[in-house]
Design brief:
Mean pLDDT: 96
Strand content: 15-25%
Strand order of the largest sheet: 2-1-3-4-5-10
Helix content: 25-40%
Shape: globular
Distance between the termini: 32 Å
Structural class: alpha/beta
Number of strands: 12
Largest sheet: 6 strands, parallel
């Protein structure tokens, strides 16, 4: 499989690239400096030139870009995978959330992802949309849980973590493996990929375990400041359980 990936300068996409290459697939990255997502003619020409077997759309960009990528894949019989977010669901009603639940986002990022989901659905009935939670790394740098918590500990000398928040979250390597499997499976639809779906670890416990796993030595102050079950349930998706990874 020849895969085109958007967002390779981000945090998760490089893990998807690594997973695909380990699986024997060729990977091409979308270079925004060369092909602007807003330029419809340039995008169409680039897609024809690259002629990918699959497109993994992880990059930030307008819903028009997402629709064009999805539409190209549908028209040419190629596979299309888009990463959405647990934030399409607001705090009320509480989770855990299933694929068919009403999307209730009340923050800009969640609303943006809903617009992308809808644009993709209109452009392609064969697309795969995967909602994911907070991504976890075990090294500094990037936009993920370990980096965020490390900065918080550096700033405050401790990490305040709610024992009443059950977040949707997964290690990036596990999310990447799930995305690749869904692309290879080729069954269209909306999916949820969440390592904490069954493990149901509260946030304070996740922080303690991540500190122990990485040797970070964080001071964790448990609280009840945020009450939320954000888990994403979907029995169709195979992803490593969080309590087995932490």
């Amino acid at each position: 499989m020849r895969a085109l990936i958007t967002g390779l300068n981000g945090t998760l996409a490089p893990h998807v690239k690594a997973a695909l290459e380990r699986g024997g697939h060729a990977v091409v990255g979308w270079e925004r400096a060369a092909v602007a997502p807003e330029d419809e003619a340039a995008c169409a020409a680039h897609l024809e030139e690259v002629s990918p077997d699959a497109v993994f759309h992880l990059g930030m960009g307008g819903e028009g870009w997402a629709a064009r990528l999805a539409g190209f894949c549908h028209e040419h019989g190629k596979r299309f995978v888009f990463t959405s977010t647990a934030m399409v669901f607001a705090n009320e009603p509480d989770g855990p959330h299933r694929v068919g639940d009403e999307r209730t986002a009340d923050e800009d990022y969640g609303k943006y992802k809903i617009r992308c989901e809808d644009a993709i659905a209109a452009a392609s009935p064969s697309a795969v949309v995967v909602r994911i939670g907070w991504q976890i790394g075990d090294e500094r740098g990037g936009n993920h849980m370990f980096e965020h918590l490390s900065k918080q500990h550096e700033a405050d000398g401790q990490i305040g973590a709610s024992a009443r928040w059950t977040p949707a979250c997964s290690f990036m390597a596990d999310t990447a493996a799930a995305l690749m499997e869904l692309a290879e499976r080729g069954e269209p639809g909306v999916y949820h990929a969440d390592s904490n779906a069954v493990s149901a670890l509260p946030f304070d416990e996740i922080v303690r375990r991540l500190s122990a796993k990485t040797g970070a030595g964080w001071r964790v102050a448990a609280n009840e400041d945020f009450v939320r079950d954000q888990r994403l349930l979907d029995e169709r998706v195979s992803i490593a359980a969080l309590d087995g990874r932490l």
